Amino acid sequence: MKxxxxxxxxxxxIGTTGYSMEKKMGDRRVGYIYLPQGFMKFxxxxxxxxxxxxxxxxxxIFTLNIFQxxxxxxxxxxxxxxxxxxxxxIKDIQGATINFTKxxxxxxxxxxxxxxxxxxxxxxFKVNGNIHLLTFEGPTNMxxxxxxxAETYKRK
Length: 156
Description:
Helix content: 10-25%
Shape: globular
Structural class: alpha+beta
Radius of gyration: 17 Å
CATH topology: Protein Transport Mog1p, Chain A
Strand content: 35-45%
Order of helices and strands: HEEEEEHEEEEH
Number of domains: 1
CATH architecture: 3-Layer(aba) Sandwich
């Protein structure tokens, strides 16, 4: 009976506080983010293999990677990302310079898919000499939550 009461209390706590268990996803090469339960490793079969590490919950996709070309600067990597958005048909592409996770100067590129129900946001930032890319794409009404998840990025 005590176990049932404990389980009920935990479920009640989760339901009333919005607390969701998170898990660390990523690897040493690209870094890590903390995703809510329900996200699983994902592979976009329509893309050429690129070293992307991806996770999805069926609505949102998070992608982590680094730029392989050592000649890239933050600006050229951000321009490359914006050009890729254009090839994908993304509309209203914009950019900003932000202080990502209060640690990294970052160029953020964002826009909307044609249906305008989905948004894509990419962060381009430098860590230990490597230019990293963290992207999420998902429902525009989940933008605030997804921005919060992106801010959980850790190098180790």
